[in-house]
Automatic annotation (TrEMBL):
Residues 49-174 form the VTT domain. The keyword Nuclease does not apply. Its main location: membrane. InterPro entries: DedA, DedA-like, VTT_dom. Pfam families: VTT_dom. It is found in: Cell membrane. Belongs to the DedA family. It is a multi-pass membrane protein. The keyword Transmembrane helix applies. One of its GO terms (cellular component) is plasma membrane. This is DedA family protein. The chain crosses the membrane at residues 28-49, 56-82, 156-177, 189-206.
């Protein structure tokens, strides 16, 4: 419970924790930022680490001169790209081993073929949009690897998604993160960055599930 409490406090008050770390350890903060983003995007069992809120707060701290904006963005972009590549490679490595199985309760060849077709057709958009959705951005590159999405295509959209994600949210934090109104409601904004994209993803999955059932239902 102590670990859960610390993680929750770190996520909701990441501005204070990062500021204290910068004051205490200076440039080592860039190593910390790299580690957080790489682990969140590159290790499929770590989807709960902060992502969007971290980028926003980093931008805000750069805005008041505690960090270098170009260095921070470069470190975060590299971490995001390498993290997704690592996650994709893990899925790609384990995928063929699983696909050797016959249909069972743990694996369904038809489901794999559908996932493979989906990622070949819509995978680029999925990889980019997943960057802005907590939890989903951790699993999307892994599933892309399992579904054997073309590596070159994945890499291209991985880089594009990382650039848009880091620069977009980081720049927003740089220009707006230190406004009095934003500082006053920062915890609510962090909750919004966590919950709103997640709810959108859940709603989209629900809509997609209903559409699939409607297509599969026998026509009168």
């Amino acid at each position: 419970m102590d670990i859960v409490h610390f993680l929750l406090d770190f996520i909701l008050h990441i501005d204070k924790h990062l500021e204290a770390f910068v004051i205490a350890y200076g440039p080592w903060v860039y190593a910390l930022l790299f580690a957080i983003v790489f682990v969140e995007t590159g290790v499929v069992v770590m989807p709960f680490l902060p992502g969007d809120s971290l980028l926003f707060i980093v931008g805000a701290l750069c805005g008041i001169g505690l960090m270098s904006f170009p260095i921070a963005c470069t470190v975060l972009i590299v971490a995001a790209i390498l993290g997704d590549q690592c996650n994709y490679s893990i899925g790609r490595y384990f995928g063929p081993k699983v696909f050797q199985w016959e249909d069972s309760r743990f694996f369904n060849k038809k489901a794999f073929n559908q996932a493979h077709g989906f990622y070949e057709r819509y995978g680029g958009v999925t990889i980019i949009l997943a960057r802005f959705m907590p939890f989903i951005r951790t699993f999307a590159p892994f599933v892309a690897g399992v579904a054997e999405m073309n590596r070159g295509k994945f890499t291209m959209f991985n880089v594009v998604g990382a650039l848009i994600w880091v620069l977009g949210i980081g720049t927003a934090g740089y220009f707006f993160g230190n406004l009095p109104l934003v500082r006053e409601h920062l915890e609510k904004i962090i909750w919004g960055l966590i919950l709103v994209p997640g709810l959108i993803a859940i709603f989209g999955a629900w809509r997609a599930g209903r559409a699939e059932k409607a297509r599969a239902a026998p026509q009168p």
